[in-house]
UniProtKB/TrEMBL annotation:
Residues 58-80 have a biased composition (Low complexity). Residues 1-11 have a biased composition (Gly residues). Residues 1-91 are annotated as: Disordered. It comes from Strigops habroptila. The lineage of its organism: Eukaryota, Metazoa, Chordata, Craniata, Vertebrata. Belongs to the mab-21 family. This is Cyclic GMP-AMP synthase. Residues 161-341 form the Mab-21-like nucleotidyltransferase domain. GO terms for cellular component: cytosol; nuclear body; plasma membrane; site of double-strand break. InterPro entries: Mab-21-like_nuc_Trfase (IPR046903), Mab-21_HhH/H2TH-like (IPR046906), MAB21L/cGLR (IPR024810). Pfam families: Mab-21, Mab-21_C.
Amino acid sequence: MDGAGGRGQQGRRGARSAAPRGRGAGGSPGDTATPRAPRREGSTARRRPSAAKSLPVRPAASGGEEPPAPRGGTVAARAPAARRRAAVPDGAVATPEAVFRSPSAAGAPRLREVLLGLTLGRQDVSEASGLVNEVVSHLIQALRSSGGSFSSIERLGAGSYYEHVKISEPNEFDIMLVMPIARLQLDECDDTGAYYYLTFKRNPKERYLLRFLDEEGKLSAFKMLQTLREIIKQEVKNIKNVEVTVQRKKAGSPAITLQIKNPPAADISVDIILTLEVQQSWPPSTQDGLKIEPWLGRKVRGEFRNRSLYLVAKQNKKEKVLRGNTWRLSFSHIEKAMMNNHGSSKTCCESDGLKCCRKSCLKLLKYLLEQLKMKYPKKLEKFCSYHVKTAFLHSCVIWPNDTDWHLGDLDHCFQKYLGYFLDCLQKSQLPHFFIPKYNLLSLEDKASNDFLSRQINNQLNNGFPIFHERF
Ligand SMILES: [Zn+2]
């Protein structure tokens, strides 16, 4: 199926069907995933992502879907390094890069070696995603044929796996299950512009959803998830060849998490994210977001804004009483499309085009944050990979040209991207890429922001020793 949002608008490199999580803990500001503390915390050894030694295996997944083929940007990193230095455009956010010592100058291995080491054990991921696809296909088929409230449900692929920037943990997946709804009324439930109450304007076409309205007439994510959870709990019993269980509900979290046994490998954990898709214009809070004109052009922006709107069941933690009736905008379909078509020229990173290091830079910063979070899980719990991804998207706009991200300039590009992120941390200001008034780095968390900023600076000035530490 198509994960890019609009039907038939498939990413240039094809659809994928299962997305492992590559996210850390923290209060998630905008991603589709439910971030959480890294599971490996406290474990004695972390499995090191193995180098790219095996070719992707493509097991036959049920439902005729192509299993996800992991592929990092690391192969491209071996391309000849033509050292062309692109100038920082005028008016760009000032970066402290001038004061940075280059990692190689500090005696550290080159960043591209770190990247090579980040390439996943491809076979592991491929096998795991085959299994996940099998289970999810079974569940979707059962839901669709039940004739109940969820019979219109579909699957949407989202997250780092589809964007080819997955860096570790092949055993964690997010699956967005999507319910198309003709029309919804959105009412902002706070000043972020990201969280909404949903109501039906008049009698909805989807009468089967009326049972999920709460006493105020708002669509209750909690009620929907509770029902979905019970159906899935029954249905996993009918899966014969794989051992699947539904994990116990966590207090305050409506998420449905499946656990799939995959011996002798570690269990696979799958978060099911209930998502609504409406074909209506994006709300006013997004009006000045997605400023991709300098990078991808006006036309592409217009096309993106014409795509469906997605809302995920997400508790707004700022609410005093958790009623389970808030929904958060999700743009993971657009993020995916931008990652997969990330060049200012159409041919960037195509076989006949210039190779850039955008994805490599994103992977490196994700890894840096992941590593730091392992070292300081409590102090950095507010941060998740969505912060890194958001800063990345802003960087793509600040440095819009493919030549700004020349593959041969990986160290330099990584440093300017990092410089921008540090700048955001120091100002406690990182606007959501699609909802500019929504600041992902609140001043309330200034102490955390300063702490992360210090840690990153420390890494930068010492050649990123943490890239080689094990936790
Ligand atoms: Zn590229």
